[in-house]
Amino acid sequence: MNIRGAWGVVTMLLLGAAGISCGKTNTGPDVPVSIEFKHPQLQSMLVNDQLHDTLGNIDSLQAIVFNSSGDTIHGAVIRYVHADTTHVVNIDSITGHVMALDTGAARVVAQTATLQSPPETLFVVQTPTVFTNSTPLEDTLVFRPVRTDTLFPLSVVLKAGTNPINHYRIEYRFVYPAALNTPDTTQILLTDANRHFSLVDTTGSTAVPGAATRYLHITPFTHFTTDTVVVEARAFFPNHTPVPGSPLRFKVLVQIQ
Predict the structure, then answer these.
(1) Rounded to the nearest 5 degrees, what angle is found at the Cα of 168, between the Cα atoms of 162 and 169?
(2) Alpha-carbon torsion 243, 244, 250, 251, what sign?
(3) What gap in Å lies between CA 145 and CA 114, rounded to an integer?
(4) What distance in Å separates the CA atoms of residue 122 and residue 50, rounded to the nearest whole number?
(5) DSSP 8-state assignment for residue 178
(6) How do residues 16-27 score in pLDDT, each as one tens digit?
(7) Above 70 in pLDDT, residue 136?
(8) Which of 69, 111, 123, 216 is the right S-S partner for 152, CB 3.0 to 4.6 Å?
(9) Least confident of 39-53, 82-96, 133-147, 235-249
(10) pTM of the predicted model, to two decimals?
(11) Which residues make Cβ contacts (< 8 Å) with residue 204, sequence separation at least 6?
(12) What's the burial of 16, exposed, middle or buried (CB within 10 Å: 0-12/13-18/19+)?
């Protein structure tokens, strides 16, 4: 074999190893190359209930399929299936409709062609009956600007009878002054434990079962005069009616010294 022929054989071998074809390609507007499994708005469900969104509407699992150009493939065939052997939820593989059967956790995935998404976890919990505070509803926060920033906890607990409920969405907001419900770092903020602006927590995300906490965050650069702030914590059933005890209102006298 001459040198030119030898290089031709090597080239064909390299192309084959790289998956390159001179004929039909594996790309195109209708060829899926990636799949995005959207996070459910509410990961918690009640036994014998359906998946809901945060407004109380019936929701379904949803995924989006993309081609090699990053465009959505409308009408792509998607199936929603269990990623474990649990019988906590029943899933309609075509519509993504979910019905809760028993308490526990279920992992589900979205599939299309040969692609499969990372799993999402759905939690089925008992029906909440108690929503109460674990930090005082009325308190005083004294802040001296010479100090470092301060995190002042506003904590609640959600239970079914005496059993704490984890993985449940709790919403926080300033009732007064309402203008503080923004990520404006020059004002008092509601944050998570990492000082990131946040108006939503999930029960059990800390070491305390059934508990949720947002913090009043104040720094030496906060522009605020002494006043009482009112923060409301709310828990809803999946149909968006309030859980007994909700809302709770925390009144904190913030003294800037």
Answers:
(1) 135
(2) positive
(3) 58
(4) 11
(5) G
(6) 333 332 333 467
(7) yes
(8) 216
(9) 133-147
(10) 0.84
(11) 164, 165, 166, 167, 168, 210, 211
(12) exposed
Token couple for 151: 């995190």
Cα gap 117→37, rounded to integer Å: 6
Q: Give helix then strand counts, H and E, for the chain.
A: 1, 19
Could you give all domains of the chain from N- to C-terminal order, each with its CATH number? Answer: 25-125 (2.60.40.1080), 130-256 (2.60.40.10)
Q: What are phi and psi of 3, to 5 degrees?
A: -65, -45
| Measured distance CA(124)–CA(239) in Å, rounded | 15
For residue 90 the two structure tokens come to 């029943």
Pairing, β 79-82 against β 138-143? unpaired
Percent of the chain as helix, strand, coil, to the nearest 5:
5, 40, 50
Q: Where are the beta strands (DSSP E) in the chain?
A: 34-37, 44-46, 63-66, 79-82, 89-91, 98-100, 104-112, 115-116, 120-125, 130-133, 138-143, 150-160, 163-164, 169-176, 189-191, 200-202, 211-218, 227-234, 248-256
H helix intervals, 104-238: none
d(CA 130, CA 7): 76
CB atoms within 10 A of CB 144: 10
At 161, list the tokens.
């009878």
Q: CA 122, 124, 128, 132: dihedral to nearest 10 degrees?
A: -40
Tens digits of per-residue pLDDT, 90-117?
A: 999 999 999 999 999 999 999 998 899 9
